[in-house]
Request: fold
Amino acid sequence: MTSPDTEFINILGAAGSPEATPHVSSRSLPEVLPILGLSDIVIFPGMVAPLLVETAQSTKLIDDVVGGGDRLLGAVLQRKAEAENPLPHEMYEVGCAARVLKMLKFPDNTVRVLIEGLWRIQIKEYPTTDPYLSAKFELVKDLKEDSVELTAMMRNAQSQFQEIIKLSPALSEQIKIAALNTEEPGHFADLIAVNLNLGLEERQKLLETNSVKERLTRLLPMLNREHEVLTLSSKIQSEVATSISKTQRDFFLREQMRAIQRELGESDPNAGEIRALREKIEQTPLPPEPKQVATQELERLQQMPPAAAEYGVSRHYLDWILSLPWTKETEDKIDLVEAERILNEQHFGLTKVKDRLLEFLAVIKRRKQIKGPILCLVGPPGVGKTSLGRSVAEALGRKFARISLGGMRDEAEIRGHRRTYVGALPGRIIQTLRRVESRNPVIMLDELDKVGADFRGDPAAALLEVLDPAQNNTFTDHYLDLPFDLSRVLFLTTANWLEPVHPALRDRLEVIELPSYTESEKLQIAKRYLVPRQLEEHGLAKKEVKIPDATLRRVIHDYTREAGVRQLEREIAALTRKATRRIVSNGNGDKPLVMAPDSLKDYLGAARFVNETAETIKECGIATGLAWTPVGGEILFIEATRMPGKGGLLLTGSLGDVMKESAQTAVSYLRSQAKLLGIDLTDYANYDLHIHVPAGATPKDGPSAGVTLVAALASLLTRRRVRSDVAMTGEISLRGRVMRVGGIKEKVLAAARFGIKQVILPEQNRGDWSEVPEEVRHKLTAHFIRHISELLPLALREK
Ligand SMILES: Nc1ncnc2c1ncn2[C@@H]1O[C@H](COP(=O)(O)OP(=O)(O)OP(=O)(O)O)[C@@H](O)[C@H]1O
Ligand SMILES: [Mg+2]
Reply:
């Protein structure tokens, strides 16, 4: 929630004070109020403020509140302004019960509301957080305090505030009137709090203070200060007015002086800057071509009046040329033993990947240059691609920079804009080089698979030039318009999958695959890397907090479901945050804080994936398939049903062509083998078959769902259910042969994640089984089949 226009905010004084508000009395407040999170405003009792409602959650809240009749809600400041859907612990505990006076919907789907603060409330608990936060609360009344002292403070504040109103252009007439008519000290303190220029936290503190005396005690010095600032600033204002006209006059005089000096053949006052630039060009080690261009540019600059827009452009260009690392580079320290140590120190496991990287470094060491294929680390999110790149840079002793290609659609982002454009800049490659101040950094081009292309040109084409060792020694950025030698840069790339990568680019890549992690690998990574790192980041010593393996295992299992460890890292960060708070507020004595598995609920909330193993199959016509996706393996359910019709086949779930053909093949096979399989097809022509693959982020193409389709259809036609604990993958031929498919390892890892017990795989994939980590092989039984006839006895239950 943001306030679009703070100028509107004012207090309606006596007329708007809660007692006088018609229709609402504090007794009519419900027990539970919906809670609106505020990001940049604190609502006080008696204050009327416009709010801009942007998030879907808050819009729903406002809709319900306005539709429901009493129009009441609790307005509470969020601890983090940017949280879109804040959680209970991200909210302050004291807020203000408020009433929606008016609501306006705008065409851009935002909603504006005018709300009026009524009473302070103390939040007790949040019984529900869905579809938005709702809380039980208690009204907070102002304390009853000694009235003589209060009156004195109030008078003092009154007179200060009146002075401020006189001096401040921002405060309106209305506030002046409100101030004169507010007699109740509590309301008056709130009126000042709203209208004085205070920070959010200060405002929140004032809201949380229910002693009026204390509120006024805090406000008085601020009023005093504001008064002084305003007096001073009005004095400055009048001085500035005279000095502006003076600057303008000076400018004209100077220009005239320059013209006269030129006429007289005297030296230019601008000469100082030009001289400095010339010296810089001489001192900077530049290759011949840039040196020549820079000198020419300087000549041009000399001819121009410094006030001309051209001057700025030209100056900017010269700065770019002079600040690039044309010859500057770091010295490589390729010590393979040390490199291995660094890779191991920062990453668990990944033996093959590390070996491959070390081989790569060995070649660089021997050839002293980088030619040949570009390494591309491919794998699901959060398996350490980016962080491996960082380690490689560290091992080489080179600077590291990351360029994210995700969503890049404009060639100019790589290659820059021509200087004729207003505000033109070099592309990301040149910018990065200037930033790292070295011409041989490790540059990681992240998310190669997410490069787009549109009418502004194809960034992939520019990348091709950047990555091609035969061309990149004369890479020419449009802005720079000078060749820059990129051949010393070590480019590494990453992608989730290679399919969307431009074929010509893919051709130049040497792919290193990073697989998903198993649960025990995740445990080791968490124990050895993530936990120590988070403890350090939170300033905790190892002996202060103990997170036992059992707890970590439960976090992995119940709170994350991912191929990598990114979510896991986030959950561990949340745990350490909680631990820090506990230790800071309670002190922990000598004993470490042990985070037991059973206490996870208190730290992280309810388990997110508990027992959510594969759905139990209760009907005929459903089968569980295994799919491969760029973010790791997945399981998917295929449903088949049949209805009166004309022997047709209906396919839904936005399936790709290959998958549709697989479905037809499956039907044809079953029909041709009906007798053998004991399927009764006498009235086939009176029915339509319908196959559906329910939604999900799974790409639904490729032939690997063949056996799953057969299983679903066979189950439907034989009226035998498919076993719930079985999942399968495999392509089929018309003759019923089961053929090899890809991604076995990721698929099997996913099956294990989802609690599947048996997998059915093509015999041709038997070789891939050994790639599956042993720990997972233990948990699952694999059946390798050559032919569909072997599938049905394994997949279907007895009648
Ligand atoms: N084997 C590992 N050992 C130690 N830490 C790891 C390992 N794998 C991943 N991490 C940690 O997990 C986090 C996420 O890794 P990283 O950002 O490198 O993922 P990524 O593969 O680049 O993901 P994305 O595809 O989303 O960019 C990092 O903090 C990283 O250090
Ligand atoms: Mg990454």
In short: The mean pLDDT is 85. The pocket of magnesium ion (ligand 2) is lined by residues 385-386, 446, 494 (CB under 6 Å). Residues 212-264 form the longest helix (53 residues).
